[in-house]
Hints:
It is built from 9 helices and 9 strands. The protein is α/β, with parallel strands linked by helices. The longest helix has 29 residues, at 106-134.
Amino acid sequence: MTAKLSLQGKTVLVTGASSGLGLEMARQLARDHHANPLLVARRKDRLEALAEELRGFGATPGVIAADLSKPADLDRCFAEATAIGVDAVILNAGVTYFGHTLAQTTADVAAIVATNVNGVVLLSQRFVPYLLERGGGAVMLVSSMAGFQPMPFQAVYGGSKAFVTSYGLALSEELRGKEVSVTVFCPGGIATEMTDTSGLSAKYPKGHPMVMDVEPCAKRALGAMIARHRLSVPGGLNKVAAFFAQMSPTRLVTRLVANDYRGALPR
Ligand SMILES: NC(=O)c1ccc[n+]([C@@H]2O[C@H](COP(=O)([O-])OP(=O)(O)OC[C@H]3O[C@@H](n4cnc5c(N)ncnc54)[C@H](OP(=O)(O)O)[C@@H]3O)[C@@H](O)[C@H]2O)c1
């Protein structure tokens, strides 16, 4: 498949649309691409406020309040979305944890695995056949540069993103020549709620050279999906860092991450 994705008038499901990258992608989809975002997250009030803003751009947005860590909500999300009709799917919702891995509660670990791994696999397993049946479309999985090497002090999160990248690239290859593309988007740090609530913004605040603003990051993400790229790392510095992470000895990169992150741990 070579044709670029056209989003005008199309319905694009965006998970994690209540904040950060998902919210900004939804905004740009409506404002710049004249698409109709279908907004998914747990905080319905935020989704409804965003839907109101998007109507101002002439879009017809939809809202599905769902907890994507719960299998029943994944079922309902798919059923409600396909009842409306979906042309492209952005699986962006995710949670993280920053700190000593052994101090992470069972609930924290379960939330990361259920949301970042199960949610992404189970929704893509449903939406890809659905889009194929409809004659075409696109799926984007928001992974992270954290998936390129082991992540001391973000071990479960890093593992979940390594999974998403590996899964997405494998799925993309299986779909080669078909009318549905799969894009794996791997940003580095982004100035969002996630960096604030995890405590990472203490070391990597907004404006730091390794932290992208959310607007350009969302623009790169949508551009990668439209161009049907298999893998996309936004930003020159991130591209260099991703190259070295993949080319250097794993032991060395893991030690460098540990040394860097140790200095940012909450006291
Ligand atoms: N920030 C970074 O530095 C960074 C770097 C690389 C990759 N990423 C990835 O980018 C994606 C977006 O992150 P962000 O930085 O925009 O974080 P964010 O501002 O914290 O947004 C996360 C979004 O995911 C939703 N979400 C979390 N758990 C959910 C659940 N169980 N069910 C449904 N929705 C859920 C949240 O909505 P509700 O709370 O309303 O449910 C929220 O809309 C994530 O996959 C993240 O791993 C982020």
